[in-house]
Design goal:
Layout (H helix, E strand, L loop, with lengths): L9 E4 L4 E5 L2 E6 L2 E5 L1 H8 L6 E2 H12 L7 H14 L3 E3 L1
Antiparallel strand pairs: 1-5, 1-6, 2-3, 3-4
């Protein structure tokens, strides 16, 4: 469901069948598959809805809640996370 190849600049959440969150982690049922997500992906998904959001606008919220990554930049980490979430049908990227 990802758009053209290249840098991810925008993201929006896709609908899921069901979602359960406990202690910061989640289990998500999407397209007939159950996925378990750790704290950071769960938190980031919670910041998204079905409206397009620029990653540059999302980054300060994520940094405030979880801090900067140990390696690389926050932008790189968010782009990698969004690509992973898109590969599982949880978000759409552009």
């Amino acid at each position: 469901m990802s758009a053209q190849p290249g840098p991810i600049t925008r993201v929006r959440r896709l609908p899921v069948i069901d979602e359960y969150v406990e202690e910061g982690r989640s289990a998500v049922l999407v397209e007939g598959r159950a996925l378990t997500l750790s704290e950071v992906p769960t938190l980031v998904l919670g910041l998204l809805d079905d409206s397009w959001r620029d990653l540059d606008d999302l980054a300060p919220q994520v940094e405030e809640l979880v801090g900067a990554p140990e390696v690389g930049t926050l932008g790189e980490a968010l782009e990698a996370l969004m690509a992973d979430l898109a590969s599982h049908g949880l978000v759409e990227t552009a």
